[in-house]
Specification:
209 residues; alpha+beta; eight-stranded antiparallel β-sheet; 44% helix
């Protein structure tokens, strides 16, 4: 009997732990304090390239199926969501200088007290970090159109300023600062020809080691 009770208590604990993996954070302070609201009905969907081309915005759609009110809150007002071990930031709340990222959610990394996330290059980041070879060859309005369409699904890393709530671009300059004390990593970084997310991410992940 005691063994049966122990097993039931263990199963209940596992169930509660599973539910606790979906947490809504209403603002930056709550995210930093890890103080949020636990839910159990969230569905995370990676948006297709076609959806992003047609409607813009970030890579992930998160909703509470069967709960329209909660889905609207998630879309418009929620600041961040933790699903299992993955953190998502609401791009409606993110700012890079005077630019906005649009709707939906971006996947983020929490590393050594920093928060980084992948999003579309904006402003000077768009003009200086991503070079479309076809656009360079063609030039003019046609080249501009190709370059603009490519930017829709292009991704770079930003760092969330945990004091102001604004964002900083994570290119070679910022990444070099973060890699201080690792000269070999910095040397490898400087040889990279791009500052896109696919290039920067491995260096960010090295910081977790």
């Amino acid at each position: 009997m005691k063994r049966l009770v122990s097993i039931l208590m263990l199963l209940a604990a596992c169930f509660l732990d599973g539910r606790a993996q979906q947490v809504l954070f209403s603002n930056l302070k709550n995210l930093l304090d890890v103080r949020g609201d636990t839910v159990t009905t969230l569905h995370v969907e990676r948006r297709s390239k076609t959806q992003i081309y047609l409607m813009g915005g970030a890579d992930f759609k998160i909703e509470a199926r069967g709960n329209e009110g909660l889905s609207k809150y998630i879309k418009r007002r929620c600041y961040a969501i933790q699903v299992d071990s993955v953190l998502y930031l609401n791009c409606r709340k993110m700012r890079y200088k005077r630019y906005r990222f649009g709707a939906w959610y971006a996947q983020a990394l929490r590393i050594n007290g920093h928060v980084f996330y992948k999003a579309q290059p904006l402003g000077q980041v768009a003009s200086s970090t991503v070079v479309n070879e076809e656009a360079t060859k063609l030039g003019g309005e046609v080249g501009d159109a190709i370059n603009a369409s490519g930017m829709v699904t292009q991704r770079v890393y930003y760092e969330l300023d945990l004091t102001t709530g604004y964002s900083l671009f994570v290119g070679k300059e910022r990444m070099t600062e973060l890699l201080e004390g690792h000269p070999d990593w910095i040397e490898a970084l400087q040889k990279e020809r791009s500052e896109e997310a696919s290039v920067i991410e491995p260096y960010l992940l090295r910081l977790k080691q």
